[in-house]
């Protein structure tokens, strides 16, 4: 996950509080005497001469004016977090450094710079360090990090088979965020083919909406989590980070409030994208929905062979949830 740091050039309680409320997890303090005051505002890490991360040791700052500065930034030990700032904020130095370093943070002054830094070479920097004295800019940059974590190309899956099964254990993922219509989680029997299971945003005559919830399916299935990784649904627990995607493939990070495992009647849903199979075992109930290409939800009890829904296809093969290249067959 991308990190949001705030550079407090001067101690300003309002600005620092806004940064923390906007998702900043680390505050860079130029005045180390204010460390304890900042700590009282929220549970954050402090970068300063006497902070949780020591400036000049754990974290170094490099102003890049030319090639020599770029080379110096690249040569620090791998564990050192390097903050870079460019005089004209050109992309080329960051491209070179991103290719060489994992612990790279870019100083930005607004949301447009933040978007660029997070997406350079598709990988982006590990985090951004915001220098701004404007409350609204801080809030906008916070939203950039929340909304712009990942973007996938979702595929249209044609349903080929629907088979009611017996009882099984399914996982209901309750998050600490409100999800919108058209959003859900990617889950599947295989990491190589997943359905976009819609959040419970819809009301019906029997059950109120639960827009913080995705009834994600059977315990054995994969779910996408940050960092292009997967987990088994049964592994999820409170405070875990998971990915939520909208019907256009835009992903954001949300956190699990609780994961409920309950025994329920299940249904197998299979589909195809060209010659690739997508399958999932979901709860057999009206409130469990897949997502149509236009973002509208469709209940699994109404689903028919030939219907089109959204999914995600990649080459299967994961080791402890991380993508690997290997020959693997999953049936």
- From the N-terminal CA to the C-terminal CA, the straight-line distance is 32 Å
How many helices in DSSP terms? 6
Sheet with the most strands, sense and barrel status: 8 strands, parallel
Kindly state the number of beta strands. Answer: 23
Instruction: Give the second-level CATH assignment, the architecture of the largest domain.
Output: Beta Complex
Mean pLDDT: 90
**Rg for CA atoms:** 22 Å
- Anisotropy-based shape: elongated
Describe this structure in words.
- By secondary structure, the chain is an alpha/beta fold.
- The chain folds into two domains: 3-148, Aldolase class I (TIM Barrel, Alpha-Beta Barrel), CATH 3.20.20.70; 155-323, Endonuclease - Pi-scei, Chain A, domain 1, CATH 2.170.16.
- The protein has helices at residues 13-21, 35-39, 67-74, 92-98, 111-119, 135-147, and strands at residues 3-8, 26-29, 45-48, 53-54, 59-64, 81-86, 104-108, 127-130, 150-151, 155-175, 183-190, 193-198, 213-218, 222-225, 229-232, 241-246, 250-273, 276-283, 289-291, 297-299, 308-313, 318-319, 322-323.
- The strands form four sheets. Strands 4-3-2-1-8-7-6-5 form an eight-stranded parallel β-sheet. Strands 10-17-16-11-12-21 form a six-stranded antiparallel β-barrel. The chain has a two-stranded antiparallel ribbon with strand order 19-20.
- Helix 1 (13-21) runs parallel beside helix 6 and helix 5 (111-119) runs parallel beside helix 6.
- It is elongated and about 65 Å long.
- The two termini are 32 Å apart.
- The model has no long low-confidence stretch (mean pLDDT 90).
């Amino acid at each position: 996950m991308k990190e949001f740091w705030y550079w407090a050039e001067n101690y300003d309680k309002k600005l620092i509080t806004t940064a923390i409320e906007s998702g900043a997890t680390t505050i860079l303090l130029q005045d180390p005497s204010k460390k304890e005051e900042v700590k009282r505002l929220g549970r954050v890490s402090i970068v300063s001469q006497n902070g949780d991360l020591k400036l000049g040791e754990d974290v170094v700052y490099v102003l890049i004016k030319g090639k020599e500065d770029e080379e110096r930034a690249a040569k620090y030990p791998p564990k050192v977090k390097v903050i870079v700032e460019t005089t004209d904020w050109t992309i080329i130095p960051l491209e070179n450094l991103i290719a060489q370093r994992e612990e790279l943070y870019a100083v930005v002054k607004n949301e447009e710079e933040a978007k660029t830094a997070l997406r350079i070479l598709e990988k982006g920097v590990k985090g951004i360090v915001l220098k701004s004295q404007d409350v609204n800019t801080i809030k906008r940059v916070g939203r950039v990090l929340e909304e712009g974590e990942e973007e996938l190309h979702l595929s249209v899956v044609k349903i080929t088979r629907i088979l009611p099964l017996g009882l099984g254990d399914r996982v209901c993922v309750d998050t600490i965020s409100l999800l919108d219509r058209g959003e859900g989680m990617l889950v599947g029997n295989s990491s190589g083919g997943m359905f976009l299971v819609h959040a419970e945003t819809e009301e019906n005559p029997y059950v109120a909406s639960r827009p913080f919830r995705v009834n994600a399916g059977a315990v054995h299935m994969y779910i996408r989590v940050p960092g292009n990784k997967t987990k088994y649904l049964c592994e999820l627990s409170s405070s875990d980070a998971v990915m939520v995607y909208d019907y256009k493939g835009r992903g954001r990070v949300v956190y699990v409030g609780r994961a409920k495992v309950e025994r329920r009647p299940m249904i197998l849903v299979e589909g195809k994208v060209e010659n690739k199979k997508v399958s999932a075992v979901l709860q057999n109930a009206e409130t469990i929905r897949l997502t149509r290409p236009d973002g509208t939800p469709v209940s699994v009890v109404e689903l028919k062979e030939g219907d089109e829904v959204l999914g995600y296809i990649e080459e299967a093969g994961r080791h402890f949830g991380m993508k690997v290249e290997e020959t693997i067959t999953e049936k």
